[in-house]
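User: As part of a screening pipeline, I want to sanity-check one entry by hand. Below is the sequence and the SMILES for zinc ion. Please return the complex as structure tokens so I can compare it with the automated output.
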Amino acid sequence: MSQQGYVAAPPYSQAQPGMGAYQGGFGSGPTQPLYGHYGGPPQAFSAPPAGKMHLIVLNRTFFLSAITVVMIFSYPAPPAVSAPYGQPPHSLYNSMASPGPPPTQQLTNQMSSMNLGSHVQGLQSPPPPVSSVVQQPFQTPPPLTMAPPQMPPGLQSPHMSPLMSPPQSPPASMPMASQSMAGTSMAGMGGPFPGPPPPGPGGFQQPGLGSAGQFGGYMAGPQQNMPGAFPGAPSAMAGPPQKKLDPDSIPSITHVIEDDQVKQGGQVFTTNIRGQVPPLVTTDFTVTDQGNASPRFIRCTTYSLPCTADLAKQCQVPLAAIIKPFASLPKNETPLYVVNHGDTGPVRCNRCKAYMCPYMQFIDGGRRYQCGFCNCVNEVPVFYFQHLDHMGRRVDFYERPELSLGSYEFVATLDYCKNNKPPNSPAYIFMIDVSYNNIKSGLVKLICDELKTLLEKLPREEGMETSAIKVGFVTYNKVLHFYNVKSALAQPQMMVVSDTAEMFVPLLDGFLVNYQDSRAVIYNLLDQIPDMFADTAESETVFAPVIQAGVEAFKAAECSGKLFIFHSSMPTAEAPGKLKNRDDKKLVNTDKEKTLFQPQKGVYEQLSKDCVASGCCVDLFLFPSQYTDIATMADVPSHTGGSVYKYSNFQIETDGEHFLRDLRKDVQKSIGFDAIMRVRTSTGFRATDFFGGMYMNNTTDVEMAAVDCDNGVTVEFKHDDTLSEETGALMQCALLYTTIGGQRRLRIHNLSLNCSSQLSELYKSCETDSLINFFAKSAYRAILNQPLKNVREILVNQTAHMLACYRKNCASPSAASQLILPDAMKVFPVYMNSLMKTAPLVGSTELSTDDRAHQRLSVMAMGVEDTQLLLYPRLIPLHNIDVNSEKPATPVRCSEERLTDSGIFLLENGQSMFLWLGQASSPDFIQSLFNVPSLAHLQGHMCALPELDNPLSRKVRSIISGLLEKRSNSMKLQIVRQKDKPEMLFRQFLVEDKGLHGGASYMDFLCYVHREIRQLLT
Ligand SMILES: [Zn+2]
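Assistant: Here is the complex for your manual check:
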């Protein structure tokens, strides 16, 4: 990342420089902190077992009365192991292993009477110009229909592969040749709706009355004419003779990805044109910034906004941007420039406070400029004056990043700093749960050993030899142990705080230190921690006080930073934030299911506020062996820009490396601290809603205690007036933050969009990957307040509505039996169907409540790449791989029918990774990969490939390590054999098939949506 130069600007509010402005963002209100104040009666404490180091025990009284260090303790013998440690660990597969075969009988007639036709629109429609607005004409050529191959009547579920494979190859003139057309159409899909998915959990239910609503855009009235519940009534299904739809003929994500890679891969995307649709997130391309932010920073659901609110309402396509303000740039792209205007700070519009950018129009010989956002005419400050050339452009246009680039930084003045003081260097505090579980599993030792090398690699400012980030250490169970690791000490000192109700930090000097200076003492400490607690019997932990301690430490040191908390169990010890088991599978598929996703109010709510106000980001590494109420425990991380990592039933042998890879990535990430973001827009529309791992004190300021390269904030826009085709629509995202080196900066991203009174322009400029990011986040937020059933209905209805509107307004007339999809959205239904089958939305008692809550929160902070991959995993065939080719293996569709008994496949979705071995896979291949003669010889629980010295092994391992490198999370490799029980885990990611826990196959969903569209159009 470009930690190297950037610049910052003035506060976000309209307040005058020097005052007010900053406060707005940083919740100043001295409301009574829940804890964190000194005072109150002294509490007894029990000393923890400790090793060689000096143990110094303090309590508040001592602290207050300024009696320094009180006693040097001799340690009592730890109590004998008493409490049992929770329930026996259940197998990873427990919850999903044997859902039983999916009911198939309802599905047998599924694909009956489907025809497929292709609307080939202009057979040779040219590829879209790479660096201009996509301008292809929208013609709707007559459909080519094809005679569908006969399907053997109702043999098995269409879910099963044999049935889906076409008995003969489709005619060459077939539909997917039409990929670059304006619209993709399929005839004959309106037929009888195929059999319903199994009723009950996860199936799509009859929409309830009044449940219609929508995400994004404008509320539509209830859609009275959307009856057909997803499972159609079987009686409605009788139809013409059964025919089969060739699965290869329905739009395929893998084709879309491949096509875009062929067209735009390896090319330069220049951002000089307004409303330009960028290559897909999956395409490998290079960006040259020429006035608009790179798509790595901002992507939109459409790059052509409708001119009026009425049009927006009519199409129901959400208008949103997904902003990754700290996105990593590849090495061959220029890092952001930093502009420094010294004490003056950045030039801003007097009225709307937008920062100087390429959308400011200089007039009057360069003495004034008109703001592109609010049209206000401003005087150019004297220091900033420059003459204009014959084009009316400033002659220093190319010398000033803020005049010619989409993204850049300003150095912020003191006006942008807390209390008008320059910030101190940020700090990382490592907080390790040393209760019985973590000691016994070897985790504590693993962490301590890793930190010794990892701390050498803390992120640095570009050009700096060492990191400015300070480090501190805390261990805890029911009490907290702080460590003095000042470089002058021969031995680290431990200080125990047992009063968790009134958390305070017992030392200032020596707690947060420079790693390089204190390396010897820190090594000493990290060596001792595992031994000190080796005999612990303590199984209870606190949690909220641990976070509170971090907040207090940052407050005391007047710095921002991040807590890395390594925690094993639900905090049940008597302390603020104590939790109890409230998991209740009986709530699944009831109106109360939402409570499973809602965090417990009170302590954690207040803690989030405190964290954000003091710039304290929380990353939680969780090692649970049972339910831990992640909905609540992850509440603070999810409001502070932090991440939650979960390793269920952690075992060093199988999960250790996976965890360490995550930890290394996490610690070394490029990151900004104490961040606040504001999105400004030109007149006519504005940002109305925000989704992300952030906190909002008011309706406009997005606060994040920290923001790293993976954090994505999704911003929704609405009209408040008519937009002009001529001037387009502008947005400016300004992120005020503190760098790793402790400098206050403003990072600015600008983007200009087109506006059109033609809906066809909107549909042409849609980006499906961004749309699905928006829908995922809005649906995942909605389930906090609404029954899942309603949320799923809204998703289906809105999908149908968006597509029906296209059909009605943008496609030329054709038979109602044809399904016509806008080219830019032709794979939208696959993603939408996949989204509805994700754990949070599916409503199955077989899924773990914690897993569902975890996924919900993770997705809320994702950018477009991550949601794309999550909702459509890569399934890569390895059995026919060319070991000599540099070309990456081409993924195939995520469907069972792509698997073969002799095949070997790698599947990954950014969170999980599987190596699937067909039962008839070649013994040679198995030998080369595993060094065993056959599948039967494979050991269970293998989680890595052995390092064998042969081309195939090297190739496969390099594919895997390449993926691990590329993704934001590390993934654990799970090796599954066809027909083994764990295969179910793998199969849930075959998202084109019927869901294991409910939800339709892609084909069924498409048919259903088509039926809905037809109903909307009549
Ligand atoms: Zn303005």
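Points to compare against the pipeline: The chain has 25 helices and 34 strands. Residues 349, 351-352, 354, 371, 373-374, 376 surround zinc ion (CB under 6 Å).
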